[in-house]
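Hey, resending since the last one bounced:
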Amino acid sequence: MSKFLEALSQRVLLCDGAMGSRIQAIDLDTDKDYWGNENCTEILSLSRPDVILDVHKGYFAAGADLVETNSFGGSPITLGEFGLQDRAHELNKRSAELAREAAECFKGDGRERFVAGSIGPGTKLPSLGHIGYDAIESALQLQCAGLIDGGVDLLLIETCQDPLQIKAAVNGAKLARAAAGKDDRPIMVRVTVETTGPLLVGTDIAAAATVIDALGVSVIGLNCATGPQEMAPHVQWLAENWPGLISLQPNAGLPELVEGKTHYPLTPGELAKWLERFLTEDGINMIGGCCGTTTEHIAALDAMLRNLGGAEARPAPRERKPVWVPGIASLYNPVAYRQENAYLSIGERCNANGSRKFRKFQEDGDWDACIAMGVEQVKEGSHGIDVCTAFVGRDETAEMTEVLTRMRGSVNAPLVIDSTELNVLEAAMKLYGGKPILNSINFEDGEEPAAKRLELARKYGSAVIALTIDEGGMAKAADHKVEVARRLYDFACNKHGLPPQDLIFDPLTFTICTGNDDDRKLGLWTLEAIEKIAQEMPECQILLGLSNISFGLNPVARHVLNSVYLDHAIKRGLTGAILHMSKIMPLHKIPEEEVKTAEDLIFDRRREGYDPLHAFIALFEGRTSQATEKRARAEDVETRLKDRIVDGDRQGLETDLEEALAKHPPLDIINVHLLDGMKVVGELFGAGKMQLPFVLQSAETMKAAVAYLEPFMEKIEGQEKGTVVLATVKGDVHDIGKNLVDIILTNNGYNVVNLGIKQPIENILAAVQEHKAHAVGMSGLLVKSTVVMRDNLERMSKDGIDVPVMLGGAALTRQYVEGDCSKAYASGRVAYARDAFDGLSLMDKIVKGDFDEHLLARKAQNDARPRNRKRELGRAKQPDMRPVDAEETRLRRQELGTGVVIPEPPFWGPRIIARAPVEALVPFLNERMVYQFHWGYRKDGRTLEEYMAWSRKELRPVLKRMLDICKQQDILVPQAAYGYWPANAEGNDVIVFDAEDHDKEVARFKLPRQGREGGLCIADFLRDVASGERDVLGMQVVTVGQHASDVARDWFADNRYQDYLYLHGLGVEMAEALAEYVHKRIRAELGFGHEDAREMDKMLQQGYRGSRYSFGYPACPNLEDQTQLLHLLGAEQIGVTLSDEFQLHPEQSTSAIVLHHPQAKYFSV
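The structure tokens again:
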């Protein structure tokens, strides 16, 4: 073991911080210092070695045990962007020498110092097709050679974003070590996990670890991209699973634009507290800092380690008991060899030798169809896909390349690379970033071909299928199969170092359906061999090419025999099978007679007058497979159009409309056939059988159909079914609900006059008169809007208006509308619309003259029901208005303040975050709120756990698409203003003092108290003004900008209904995510962010110290108080203002006061 690995296993080591942050703090000249190569930090090792040496010395002086060389971008590929590729060896060697020289300067203090050769990922990723494997491997071999020659103690491959790049880098490093005779130099790999969860190419931490483990790397780590909290779930996974050592170097938080400069928010003390938590909870072996960290951060980490280590200066790593689950991996996810209550199923149909369909696609060069076959097998339940492109007269290497380059990113399951040709296998390995299975090795031509394939497997990190074939041919008898298996194990595992769990035996099965006596027991012998191999070599896997057993039978018989044989093989110890997953049936679904006859055939239970083969064949004579197909297109165009609306299917829509125009007038097509489809959509939605986004997809199809037909129609006044005026009421900026009503009514033949948001009653009434509207629809989200609606109805009564009115919105209830609102409207012609289809139903009643009858029926139902009159909607429950007992509240606060230290903020007054990165907010996004409450996907009987598992699979791709669009089009502009003010409590008031003059009152928030003995008030969680001690109050306001609302409205106008819904919901929740993000920053700056719950789900459920209270909620109901808050924060700098009704504008904004007290939690008044 190297000295470094020995030290790392015995004590926690401290690595340095960022090189770039230190360099950027120095005033360097582009021409003089960088030799004209701006941003090429590596050139400084030659041009300004004094600067690099000082950086290394600074980190060693701060307490670091090792430093990284100034060679992060030192590969010939990256240096080639500056024309420096020919100096790569020189630059890397010199960078290593400088780091070594710095280490030698500290030699006399008795501590070991190490130098890590830093190897970055470059700018080109092979899995994305930017560069080939060989180019990376040879370039990094040269870089590593320079680092080794310069005297590094280890090779650090860091900031990895692509598993295929990791393979090339590790193999390049191994080649350089071997050439230099330095095989003792350890290799460490650190990956970079994005804020969204996986590596940049989509690989999750478990898949990355599976690949790295297969390459024989014993130290894994995380660095860059995020701060420690975002890394927490991945650190926990490594701690619980990774069998080797763990390294961790986070950024100093996520970068933000603050006052025009990039700022990393995590202080040295806060970083130290987070990493101390990882050390004590997770058993990390090495820590340090990445982007944004400085010597101060490293000094804080050193002090923390000394405190934990006591006299030893460094603590021993906490003992872990990881549970490593062996398996394979796609580019994205791992798959365990041993499936719980199942077997590893490998899809067999992407094989040119076994599938005529695949071979035809391959011959035609229809690569998309080839890939679709792989995707389909994964959907059917296959855990992996066997890929073989070999057949006579074709270029197998070229065609394997065509398939692999497409399949590696499109098929979310590991691949089995199946070829008899060594060059094909290697070409495929160089394309695949996951951990595949090599298919296969055997001893038919002796040991040399098997040895070459095992070398490939070890180099590229793959499992291996080993066939029980020796120089004498295929082993048929059970004992012969086991004998060959023993030899294969010794050769692969003992001689070539393949881990036993990566050796997959295929004991071969042959058809038992020929009728020849010699073949009758072949299936039984294979079962016996499986059992013996499983007993003797339990760590290894056992797999069969299942379909061979039934060769020669008709398809239906084959499916039954394969299913029965598989069941017996699993009971004997089989762990996997190559098969057609959808054709395997559970035994309880196969008729008992068929199972029994199949078993008689497998176990050769012939007797006089009974041959199980003949009996089995007879059972299936004349039977054919029942193919399941998608719903066929209707023959008549009328039904096809109706189905298109229901399915939201626009592909080929115009062709069907052209055909329909030859038979029907365009208006009939709309009013009869297309509206029939929308009626079905409404019925399905009402029955809970269609989710809202698919309703909008149907509406988009309807809109497209109407747009196509309009040029063929003569515009006739009043051809719409009726006219309705829709508006969001005065003071309310929320329009999603109203716009959904617009979509449904418009696409069901109504003329909708949509006035927009914040509409006073005068505008609504003017539109009713101008358009001769049959009805009015008023919408609002806020509780206050319910009062506005009632006031509007009173005004309409005074003006003698009796037009039917529909009211809808989240804050309304049917009881309030049919009670208070009905009384406020003299005609009583007002109804509650729960959703858009309720609105459609009401409009149908209005135009048909059934509305008043409907209201009478509702009134009769209500009169027969008892009513709760204790609370009125639209009027907050009155808080406790008893006189404040100053002495009582003072004593309460004194008690609450005992033991709570007032934190010291890093600054007083406001600060602006001019732009927070969207990616940084994604971890704080409440996905359930997005999917269920904004996008309208119902649980449909699922438990919450089942719903979230389903949504991660089905809806997260939609979320990613929307986030990508937002990023590409710069739709979301996250900005914030936040800060700290001295504060105290007086009675039920919170007093805010000036940021500079702490005795000058600048604001006062009057807050309610719970109406019970000992009732709570927010003011209780601040020091009393009589204490003479100033407390600290945080304030924040955040927004994702007006542009998000503008784009959503543009999409609505462009009939992009589904995307409109998605964007609106995403914008609302991204504003909430930004509020969580800023609140987290406040906790970090106040010194207790490390106390947050590590799991983001728990953190979002108030798993942190203190609370954030937004005005308008029960504990602080006065929206008017936002005026003071926004003034103090200077909110106009980020474009946030208040409406006349004290609503924040832009719509997707939110504000809050922030209390640090540990007992401050949400409560209702």
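Residues 1057-1085 form the longest helix (29 residues).

Sorry for the duplicate.
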